[in-house]
Amino acid sequence: MIYTKRFTKPIPVSLIVLSAIFFIAVNSFAQQDIRLSKGQTVYVPAYSHIYYGDREIPIYLAVTVSIRNIDQTNPITINEVNYYDTKGELLKKYLNTPMRLGVNASTRFIIKESDYKGGSGANFIVKWTSNAQVNPPIIESIMIGRRNQQAVSFTSRGQAIIDGGR
Hints:
The protein is mostly beta strands. The chain is built from 1 helix and 12 strands. The protein has one helix spanning 13-31; strands at 37-45, 49-52, 57-60, 62-68, 76-84, 90-93, 99-101, 106-111, 123-134, 138-147, 150-157, 159-163.
């Protein structure tokens, strides 16, 4: 083979790896299909405190659970929002009656920073339904807290554990 001067420099391996990762990421994103549902039961991690340091010092966290109806055509109904502690014991039921969430609407449920009964394994179970096949809502928990000069904030996305129908 004959090489000209401009082709004698090898392509860095890191550039090849980054290109491959980019191709795979774009390709997998493009191939995601939208899964519609008529309802789900969703598990949402919600840490009422986390630990730091060698002595496992707790940082208590305020928790906001956000439910967002991202469907562009149909409302959804939130049937249950229940808060559980690390042991799986029910601490609080947030709804006495189902709540309608309109198109592009959102709602939230809050655990105060001073309420740390849930523990580091606290969670919510959210049950929602719809009369039509819809895009499942985005359900996230947002945790924020501070201790002295240390502050933390992070989010956690809910995971469907039961699908009520496709």
